[in-house]
Specification:
Layout (H helix, E strand, L loop, with lengths): L2 H22 L19 E5 L4 H12 L3 E6 L2 H14 L4 E6 L5 H15 L4 E4 L16 H19 L10 E6 L16 H8 L6 H17 L12 H21 L8 E6 L17 H13 L10 E3 L2 E3 L2
Parallel strand pairs: 1-2, 1-4, 2-3, 4-5, 5-6, 6-7
Antiparallel strand pairs: 7-8
Length: 322
């Protein structure tokens, strides 16, 4: 893409940002606020990785809209401070914190048991917890195992544990996975080099846990053997990109499994890319704020039932390709 093309693309992104800013200022009409239909109890939303950045901002916005938010974070002190910050800022807010490490199966199991005892279930699950150790032009795979364990297996672990706790309602349960455009199977720079694997990942009828787990396992084995190649795998932030590719594909697999649920038992699962956000994960080098980055996730969680989708990938409130 030449300079003119890049400038045009940048202007289109800026125009869309301005549009979304205006949309965010439009209040939900009473008939759109499905979560108010659950009164006298508040809808319960769990947000992972909620002590800072996008996770905190998603929690803050959901609390602003009237949901009870459980801020789950690995660091208990930061989680407590984040919940207290929301409660101080918003007089009518309802929020609490709970320690959770999505990379630890025992921690996830304990969190699910606590949620069942305390709330009897939830209505919204936002899988935001994630790590990325690369910055700028770096592309180290030194921490590949930790990245994939947290970003992919952690997300998968939470869905498996919390799925039985999503409460039946006429409005449907909501699962939103925070992902990235870097996880596109057919991205310009991050394309999967194996054409057969790429086709399988993009074909719903081919999807399986074995396919997804096999892909990340193969990559990790190559990392251990120092035999991985950027020709076969994504070129940018390789371990992070593969983890998010796995999240995207797993989102579609779960959508396929959940699609035929009857009315009152429906669960809507989607993923979204928040963009390049100014957070600790990017060393504050992003080009949008956490408030902007959180918006599409909050929008997906709160979509009126008639507009809710399943198995889609979004950015800036628009569907994008996998």
């Amino acid at each position: 893409m030449g300079k003119r093309g890049k400038a045009a693309a940048r202007e289109r992104r800026e125009e869309r940002r301005r549009e979304v800013t205006l949309l965010r200022a439009v209040p939900y009409e009473p008939h759109q606020r499905w979560w108010d239909g659950l009164a006298p109890a508040r809808a319960v939303a769990v947000v992972t990785g909620a002590s800072r950045g996008i996770g905190y901002e998603i929690s803050r916005q959901l609390a602003h809209h009237g949901l009870h938010v459980v801020l789950a974070s690995r660091d208990a002190a930061r989680g407590r401070d984040a919940a207290e910050s929301i409660l101080r800022e918003q007089e009518a807010a309802s929020a609490e914190w709970r320690q959770l490490d999505v990379a630890d199966a025992a921690s996830v199991e304990a969190f699910a048991a606590w949620t069942a005892r305390t709330h009897g279930g939830i209505h919204v699950l936002i899988n935001n917890a994630g790590v990325n150790f690369n910055r700028g032009a770096d592309n180290s795979v030194e921490f590949a195992e930790q990245v994939i364990e947290t970003n992919y297996f952690g997300t998968k672990r939470m869905i498996e544990a919390m799925l039985p706790l999503l409460k039946p309602s006429p409005y449907g349960g909501r699962i939103v996975n925070v992902s990235s455009r870097l996880g596109r199977a057919n991205g310009r720079r991050n394309k999967i080099g194996d054409a057969i694997l790429r086709e399988q990942l993009l074909t719903d009828d081919c999807l399986s846990e074995e396919l997804i787990d096999g892909m990340v396992t193969k990559f990790l084995e190559q990392v251990k053997q120092n035999s991985w190649s950027s020709i076969e795998w994504p070129q940018m932030y390789t371990d992070y990109s593969i983890s998010k590719l796995a999240v995207n594909v797993y989102t579609r697999l779960m959508a396929k499994r959940l699609a035929d649920r009857s009315e009152g038992q429906k669960i809507y699962i989607n993923c979204f890319c928040p963009g390049w956000v100014k957070t600790a994960m990017t060393d504050w080098e992003g080009n949008i704020s956490a408030e902007e980055g959180a918006d599409t996730g909050v929008w997906l969680a709160l979509l009126p039932q008639a507009q809710a989708t399943i198995g889609k990938f979004y950015a800036e409130r628009r569907e994008i390709s996998f």
